Task: inverse folding
């Protein structure tokens, strides 16, 4: 009985060491797909803005293969900028230093385009996948890809006609680092 209790205590101690808070940051290349439409005059246009992004996150490892986070991502767009706030969950696959991961993300964002005084706002959801490498017990590096589908738009009136701007998708390659406490 004493051996069973000792084994349970040691196991719970090991599990506690695998869990904990973490902070992370990444930078990346981001392609955002925008649309502009004015149905009353039959106008429709699409553009992909290719810029950079910077992300900060705070999260918690539940165990060695499961983590969650809250994040802020700044998006660089031509003639403006974007801010995204969200939450995410990742599942890290395997027991070694190299761990592929897959995850889901969701949140709220806004993109301001200065030249046309537009503030495109709304929600987004998506998925991410990548590879995490544990350099030490506390420090890891990772690289991956995020795909986000957005429900973000803004309508302005130009010469008495509605002009709608939408952000449709955001595709983001990233590289970053995490520190677990």
Result:
């Amino acid at each position: 009985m004493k051996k069973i209790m000792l084994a349970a205590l040691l196991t719970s101690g090991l599990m506690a060491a695998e869990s904990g808070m973490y902070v992370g940051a990444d930078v990346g290349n981001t392609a955002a797909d925008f649309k502009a439409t004015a149905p009353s005059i039959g106008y429709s246009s699409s553009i992909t803005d290719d810029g950079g992004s910077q992300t900060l996150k705070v999260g918690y490892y539940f165990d060695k293969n499961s983590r969650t986070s809250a994040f802020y991502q700044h998006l660089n767009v031509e003639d403006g900028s974007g801010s995204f706030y969200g939450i995410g969950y990742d599942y890290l696959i395997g027991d070694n230093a190299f761990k592929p991961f897959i995850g889901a993300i969701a949140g709220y964002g806004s993109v301001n385009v200065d030249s046309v005084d537009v503030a495109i706002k709304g929600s987004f959801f998506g998925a991410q996948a990548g590879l995490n490498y544990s350099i030490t017990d506390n420090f890891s590096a990772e690289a991956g890809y995020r795909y986000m589908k957005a429900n973000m738009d803004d309508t302005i009136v130009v010469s008495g006609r509605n002009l709608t701007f939408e952000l449709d998708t955001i595709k983001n390659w990233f590289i970053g680092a995490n520190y677990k406490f």
Summary: The CA atoms of residues 155 and 164 lie 4 Å apart. Helices lie at 2-18.
